[in-house]
Amino acid sequence: MPAKGKHRRPKTRRLTRSIAVAGTGGAALALPLVAAAGAHAATTQSVAGKAAQSLPAVDKTAEKKATAQSNAGVRSYTVKSGDCLAAIADEQNVSGGWHRLYEDNRQAVGADPSLIHPGLKLSLGAKAATTHTESAEPSRASRKPQATPSAPATTATAAAQTPAPSTGYTLPVTGATIGTGYHVAGSMWSSGYHTGVDFVVPTGTPVKAVAAGTVVSAGWGGAYGNQVVIKLNDGYYAQYGHLSQLSVSAGQTVTEGGRLGLSGATGNVTGPHLHFEIRTTPDYGSDIDPVGYLRSHGVAVG
Fold it and tell me: Is residue 226 part of a domain?
């Protein structure tokens, strides 16, 4: 018999303690695992979040760059009362003149380039902008090394870019084609033949002095409509007929390329054009070949 008052500890209590210790140890061991898993998840979410946040910035940058390239070189102009394509192209420095301006806006203008109306919006340099976008600089990976041009090639390029020296003479209108030529026979002319040459241009095309001189007359000329006659410095006379607007007056001196007015369809005409003559006197009937005269002074006439 065991001594009085001394008892063995119940095994169940030891088991409970073991379980408690084991439980505590399990918790201690589990905590680092949970922390590690949490840290890993946080890192993954952080990286994914940063990547997701950076994507829109890249897309927006690319979008802005594409938009800037597509709009580069593109301008617009709103037609005002009294405007014409030729005057707009001249004032806005449109490369290619009114022909280019009309081609870029043919759909908006319509079949007749002279029928533009106030409020119409025209694009200036639209095709140039398209070319600029398509010819964007290639990436570094696709860029090929370029050889340095030799001295003769550089000299030739510089010569090609140098404008030809002025001869002191120019065409009366820019970008025009010849309609009725000089000395074409016909009963509609009092002399029995055409005394000048017709440059086919729309109403409102700037008309220029072919050379320096002095204005002899500027006003109504009967069948010629509004006309200007200039005595050139070489002694010959230049006559411009059917103008829609006059910009000079008698006695005024002009220089080569100076504006005399705008082309039109005043007087006896079947359509807008510039009638141009070279005369030996200021009077009708003293005409000579105007194309031959211009060519003799180095002016290329189509």
Answer: yes
| 286 & 193 share domain | yes
Q: In the predicted model, is pLDDT for residue 160 greater than 50?
A: no
Strand partners, 287: 279
Residues 6+ apart with CB under 8 A from 25: none
Q: Is residue 150 part of a domain?
A: no
Written as one letter, the residue type at 17 is R
Three-state SS for 118? coil
Whole-number percent of the chain with pLDDT over 90: 34
* 128: CATH: 3.10.350.10
φ and ψ at residue 220, rounded to 5 degrees: -75, 135
Inter-CA distances, 41 with 47, 48, 268, Å: 10, 11, 91
The answer to whether residues 190 and 292 belong to one domain is: yes
Which residue bears the tokens 């420095």? 93
Name the pairing type of β-strands 274-279 and 197-200: antiparallel
Residue 2 DSSP one-character state: P
Q: Supply the pLDDT for residue 72.
A: 54
Which residue range(s) make up the domain with 188?
177-296
- In this predicted model, what pLDDT tens digit does every residue of 62-91 receive, in sequence order? 555 555 544 555 688 998 877 777 788 888
Rg (CA), the chain: 42
Percent of the chain residues topping a pLDDT of 70:
59
Cα-to-chain-centroid distance, residue 81: 23
| Total domain count, the chain | 2
Residue 287 inside a domain? The answer is yes
Q: Give 76's strand partners.
A: 123
Based on the fold, state whether residues 104 and 203 are members of the same structural domain: no
